[in-house]
Design brief:
- It is built from 10 helices and 13 strands.
- The protein has helices spanning 14-26, 44-51, 65-73, 97-105, 176-181, 194-204, 230-247, 250-273, 277-298, 315-320; strands at residues 4-10, 31-38, 56-60, 81-85, 89-91, 109-118, 133-135, 141-143, 146-147, 150-151, 161-164, 171-175, 208-219.
- The strands form 3 sheets. Strands 1, 2, 3, 4, 5, 6, 11, 12 and 13 form a 9-stranded mixed sheet that branches.
- Helix 7 runs antiparallel to helix 8 (250-273) and helix 7 runs parallel beside helix 9 (277-298).
Length: 329
């Protein structure tokens, strides 16, 4: 059996599979390739069976979203390492070689992210993860190569291997034993930020995440749920609050949640000023959904003293007040 499984979650993405599976098949000799299908109603299954017979299909019974979709599918995948790859990812030659080297030689590294560049503009980093993620003192995630909506051009400035706080779910490598110990992603998230929550919980077990520029992939981004969709706003705001509730150290939980709720209110006002009323309403709905889940979420708390994983600065202040558009360590 091969050491690594490339698992692509799909829902009604027949066209994406036709476009992007060829690169995965061509450059993944070291891996067993799976497509986990979330009960697609299009021709996804037919496309795989007719054009990519070497790929194993896992058929989920419903559209479980990203989190539960992978949780259900990966119960059937027994390779040592998982590569969870979006269906709109183009991989490059030898993309798995540095990943396998790190996993085989660095037992404390539990999660890895490659360099993620923009498929539509390959000279630039891509929004979803870029060159590895961090979290600021108020729990806001951001990336090297992308802060809020500012994307950096790839000048080789992140051609390194460094520890990071979180790895992007667009192309996410994790050891099977860690994934199963943590019982995978949190199903309540459905989609968005569940990978940050999983990275945080892995840290609490003593494992670290790492970024390597030696592995490069290109991501379309927004192929399933684009930035203009209020549902994405809802999921991001709700899930951020759920993640903080689960993982913040005891001394920070109450006051940081209070600050975040206030900052979310300011974000809603800003959206109203911009005429984005549906997105403002999505934040309101996100807060009510969070309140409905808060008791359930509090029961999931297993935090340790992870304060040293926070960056001391406020990325919101750096970006909007000091005009700090580029990542600074």
């Amino acid at each position: 059996m091969k050491k690594i499984a490339v698992v692509i979650l799909n829902w009604n993405g027949a066209q994406l599979l036709e476009q992007f599976l060829p690169s995965v098949v061509a450059y993944s000799d070291e891996a067993q390739i799976y497509v986990a299908d979330n009960a697609s109603s299009d021709t996804s299954i037919e496309v795989i069976e007719s054009k990519f017979p070497q790929i194993t299909i896992i058929k989920n019974e419903g559209n479980y979203g990203f989190a539960k979709g992978y949780n259900v599918a990966l119960q059937q995948v027994e390779e040592d390492y998982y590569a969870l790859v979006n269906s709109d990812i183009e991989v490059t030659e030898n993309w798995l070689t540095p990943i396998l080297s790190i996993f085989d030689n660095e037992p404390n590294i539990g999660i890895i992210q490659p360099k993620i560049l923009d498929f539509k503009n390959k000279a630039y980093f891509e929004y979803a993860g870029a060159a590895g993620g961090y979290i600021d003192q108020y729990g806001y995630p951001y990336c090297r190569g992308r802060i809020f909506d500012t994307i950096e051009k790839d000048h080789g400035q992140y051609n390194d291997e460094v520890e990071i706080f979180w790895a992007s779910g667009a192309c996410f490598f994790i050891r099977k034993e860690i994934y199963r110990t943590l019982k995978g992603f949190d199903d309540d998230f459905f989609a968005h930020q569940e990978e940050i929550d999983l990275c945080w919980r892995a840290y609490n077990l003593g494992y670290k995440a790492k970024y390597t520029s030696k592995s490069v992939v290109y991501h379309v981004g927004g192929a399933t749920l684009n930035e203009g969709n209020p549902k994405k706003t809802f999921l991001n705001f709700r899930n951020s609050l759920l993640m903080l509730t689960k993982n913040l150290p005891e001394g920070k939980l109450f006051w940081l949640l209070l600050i975040r709720l206030c900052l979310d209110g300011l974000a809603g006002i800003q959206l109203i000023v911009k005429g984005k009323f549906k997105h403002c309403w999505a934040i309101v709905k996100a807060h009510f959904a969070f309140y409905n889940l808060i008791n359930k979420t509090l029961k999931k708390r297993t935090p340790k003293n992870s304060e040293h994983y926070f960056q001391s600065k406020s990325i919101v202040y750096q970006y909007f007040v000091k005009n700090g558009k580029i990542f600074e360590p």
